Amino acid sequence: MEGTLLVIVVIAAVVVLYVLSGLTIVQQSETYIIERLGKYCKTLSSGINIVWPILEKPRKICIRAVRQDLAGNVYVRINETPRIDLREQVYDFPEQNVITKDNVTTRINALLYFQIVDPVKAVYEINNLPNAIEKLTQTTLRNVIGELELDETLTSRDTINAKLRSVLDEATNKWGVKVNRVELQDITPPASVRNAMEQQMQAERERRAKILRAEGEKQSAILQSEGEKQSQINYAAAEKEAQILKAQGEAEAKVLQANAESEAIRRVAEAIEGTKTDPATYLLAVKYIETLKEMASGQDSKTVYMPYEASSVLGSLGGIKDLFPTK
């Protein structure tokens, strides 16, 4: 009995150890491909899983490992691991020379964002997934850039990224990989082309500066001409207004003078009313006296000119005496 019990205990211990050794913990967003006797068996999900030792084992997959030393040198290695990462991954490919449609050799550095959506295809449909993605990206990039000229390459990054993503996503679909995004980091033309581009940009800036300067001078001349025109219009309007005001003033002065003379005549007529003297004759005599006074006011005046018909004037002077009462 004791020997049988001991055998049972040993067998039970071996079974427990066998089961425990097959316990596998899978992290979140990771998976394992399990083969049983060399044939695909199952895909493990995250959490605790049992893999029977000897009969079952995980299938390894190639991954791309990037290392950088203290000097800044970047090393890329391809390792094998049973762990399959289902998260989005990024591959930073080294610069490569591509030839544009106009035969200009350009160096381009690309970034690729992809994700494994079918682990079974990623393991069994391609031998070395990182290397296959890298080579496919390089050849596709050469084909796309080869259809564009240098100017289009420099100004059409979004178009190039869209074409690359479409072609790579379609090609990698059978590998269980989805390409989410492709980005061109750097596009570096040759030094001679860069110098020519800099000179062209400098000439373009100078041309724009000259155009802006000419437009500014033209606008300034137009504004100055409009200002002078407006000034002349304002001056003419002011001068016209002044002439109108002057004419109105002269007219008003003449009206006032005429009114004053009319009032004077009226008062003279009222004053001599009842006498034999004609008011017109009286006024004419007054004017004649004032004229004679001016003619004789000079210091060297020795001669007095009398009008030809002076008799009638003198007669009007005689009529003045009738205005005064006789004693």
Description:
With 327 residues, the chain is an alpha+beta fold. It folds into three domains: 13-58, no CATH class; 61-189, Band 7 domain (Tetrahydropterin Synthase, Chain A, 2-Layer Sandwich); 274-327, no CATH class. Helix content is 53%, strand content 23%. The protein is built from eight helices and twelve strands. The protein has helices at residues 2-21, 119-124, 129-146, 150-155, 157-172, 191-271, 279-295, 310-318; strands at residues 23-26, 30-36, 39-44, 47-50, 56-58, 61-68, 74-81, 84-85, 89-92, 96-99, 105-116, 177-188. The strands form four sheets. Strands 2, 3, 5 and 8 form a four-stranded antiparallel sheet that branches. Strands 9, 10, 11 and 12 form a four-stranded antiparallel sheet that branches. A two-stranded antiparallel ribbon has the order 1-4. Strand 10 (96-99) and strand 11 form a beta hairpin. Helix 3 packs across helix 5 and helix 7 (279-295) crosses helix 8 (310-318). The mean pLDDT is 81.
Give a topology summary.
Elements: H1 2-21, E1 23-26, E2 30-36, E3 39-44, E4 47-50, E5 56-58, E6 61-68, E7 74-81, E8 84-85, E9 89-92, E10 96-99, E11 105-116, H2 119-124, H3 129-146, H4 150-155, H5 157-172, E12 177-188, H6 191-271, H7 279-295, H8 310-318
Antiparallel strand pairs: 1-4, 2-3, 2-5, 2-8, 6-7, 9-11, 10-11, 11-12
Helix pairs in contact: 3-5, 7-8
